[in-house]
Design a protein that fits this description.
globular, Rossmann fold, 7 helices, about 25% strand, eight-stranded mixed sheet, two-stranded antiparallel ribbon, alpha/beta
């Protein structure tokens, strides 16, 4: 379905009321991610994949004129409002029963957005930031300044072991920042994990995303 200029594809769970995972995607990859999830033995869940995003603008928290040869518009606040006001209610209304939980996942800049979106809105009980763009200047300090009581209690963070190996001084901070955030969350009683995968930023993106989703779902009965 098309809503507010975004395309939403819903892959429904076999059991009504199963957890709902919202996934912002650069391009449609839901089928591949679900195949990996099945192979990993994930519990049943509904996946709602959102595409048609203005990637560098909709998912960035504030303007950044230049990083890695690209510019970022800093319109995440506006997109989050659209997600909560228009997209999420439409997704829920398409289901036969309300989901037991609503989780948020994303890869790359969408992983950054997942952490930003869940930092206080109260809608998402768990977050998976898979190879998240935590090199974004000022972002880790922004999250650390938020009230821990308002943050989701389950957070999955991952990265490729070659992502920080770059000459770009901004991008090379990504591993240190991701590790720092995982440690900070754990110190404040948040169920957080950091997983280091083999490869660069573009290696096995669908599998990495599936691993994050499966980890969140596996924690539902023990933490949430």
């Amino acid at each position: 379905m098309e809503i507010s200029g975004k395309t939403i594809e819903i892959f429904k769970a076999t059991v009504p009321g199963a957890p709902l995972v919202i996934l912002n995607s650069y391009q449609k990859s839901g089928v591949e991610i679900l195949r990996h999830c099945r192979n990993l033995g994930c519990p049943d869940f509904t996946l709602a994949e959102i595409t048609g995003l203005n990637w560098n603008d909709d998912l960035s928290p504030w303007k950044l004129s230049q990083a890695g040869g690209e510019a970022f518009g800093g319109k995440a606040e506006g997109y989050l409002a659209v997600l909560l006001r228009d997209l999420l209610p439409a997704i829920k209304s398409a289901l036969s029963a309300p989901p037991s939980r609503v989780l948020l996942a994303g890869y790359s800049l969408a992983g950054l957005f997942a952490l930003y979106a869940a930092a206080g809105c109260g809608e998402f009980q768990a977050v998976a930031s898979c190879s998240g763009s935590l090199w974004y200047p000022g972002f880790t300090d922004y999250l650390k300044a938020r009230d821990p009581a308002l943050l989701p209690q389950t957070v999955y963070l991952s990265l490729g072991d070659r992502e920080a190996r770059t000459k770009n001084e901004t991008l090379r901070t990504v591993e240190d920042n991701t590790r720092e955030l995982a440690q900070y969350r754990a110190q404040h009683g948040i169920d957080a994990v950091f997983e280091l995968n083999k490869g660069n930023h573009f290696h096995q993106a669908a599998l990495r995303t599936a691993k994050g989703i499966c980890w969140m779902l596996g924690r539902l009965n023990t933490i949430l």
